[in-house]
Specification:
CATH superfamily: Glycosidases
CATH topology: TIM Barrel
Largest sheet: 9 strands, mixed
CATH class: Alpha Beta
Radius of gyration: 18 Å
Order of helices and strands: EHEEEHEHEHEHEHEEEH
Number of strands: 11
Structural class: alpha/beta
Shape: globular
Number of domains: 1
CATH architecture: Alpha-Beta Barrel
């Protein structure tokens, strides 16, 4: 279990309190690979720039070997990195080659799409096709990642919009009350593992780098409700196995790591684990801590 850290909080302290083993902050800060909690670096791949840029990323990789690097964040999402499948494949190829040359021990993770819906899987298929056309090789991915949200896909509506580069007007259509549907969450993760197998990536680990509830309390997502959602999804992720699609090196488990969004976020506070004003765990944070205490300690 891990955490997303989008606010300036003492992450090592809170990770210890919560029992979180790893985190990401959508940045690439120089950090020793073996320092706990583990830290996953990220290159943001915006249409007009990379953060950090290629030269700075190479420098960090060379001086801090052995880290995990995620290339991009929701490139499919017009409100995030906003790249077409073809543009993302080209950006991934550039960073993959450069980082592996600078640090052959690093691991490269593909960016997590907003959710593993049918539309987003089509987006990823175009990424794979273009990468192979570009390089002549199958796309190399050390770690697959995905975001575990359940969101509406319709042009101009709430939710995840339409993936960049796709001409569709709608995809997954749901009500706000289904945003926290645990069964839909499970279905999408199982579907993604089947997709990985069908495309030759069953032998690779899968990490959910963002999951949680984004819609506010007025839609019914009270602290107690979100706490139950965390517990139910964590219980399933901790045990879900499929010997035909899961990761063989992890007894067929579907997901190897997952990170809750987030430790604290001012834009999406309903899932906050910590109240930054009081310095105390929220009810959702207590649920996270109760889970790790009962399962890991």
């Amino acid at each position: 279990m891990g955490i997303g850290v989008s606010e300036a909080l003492p992450v090592e302290y809170w990770a210890n309190v919560l029992g979180a083993g790893w985190y990401l902050d959508w940045r690439a800060s120089p950090r020793h690979a073996l320092r706990l909690p583990r830290y996953w670096l990220m290159v943001r791949t915006f249409p007009d720039r990379d953060v950090p840029d290629l030269n700075r990323s190479i420098e960090i990789a060379r001086t801090h070997p052995g880290n995990v690097w995620i290339i991009g964040n929701e490139p499919d999402n017009p409100f995030q990195d906003a790249l077409s499948p073809e543009a993302y494949a080209e950006r991934y190829a550039r960073f993959y080659d450069a980082l592996k040359a600078a640090d052959p021990t690093c691991q490269i993770a593909i960016a997590g799409v907003t959710q593993p819906s049918a539309l987003r899987l089509r987006y990823l298929e175009r990424v794979l096709v273009h990468y192979e056309m570009l390089t002549g090789n199958r796309m190399p991915v050390d770690i697959w990642t995905v975001h575990g949200y359940v969101l509406q896909e319709q042009k101009g509506d709430w939710g995840a919009e339409i993936p960049v580069g796709l001409s569709d007007k709608q995809g997954l259509l749901i009500e706000p009350s289904q945003h926290g549907d645990v069964e839909l969450f499970k279905t999408q993760i199982m579907s993604f593992r089947r997709w990985m197998k069908d495309h030759g990536y069953r032998e690779y680990p899968l990490a959910i780098t963002e999951m949680g509830i984004l819609l506010p309390e007025e839609f019914g997502y009270s602290p107690d409700w979100v706490s139950r959602y965390l517990t139910q999804t964590f219980e399933w992720l901790n045990t879900a196995q499929d010997m035909s699609t899961g990761y063989p090196q992890d007894d067929g488990r579907l997901v190897q790591q997952w990170a809750w969004f987030s430790l604290a976020d001012s834009i999406y506070p309903v899932s906050n684990l910590v109240n930054p004003s009081t310095g105390e765990l929220t009810p959702v944070g207590e649920a996270f801590n109760n889970f790790t205490t009962s399962h890991l300690r």
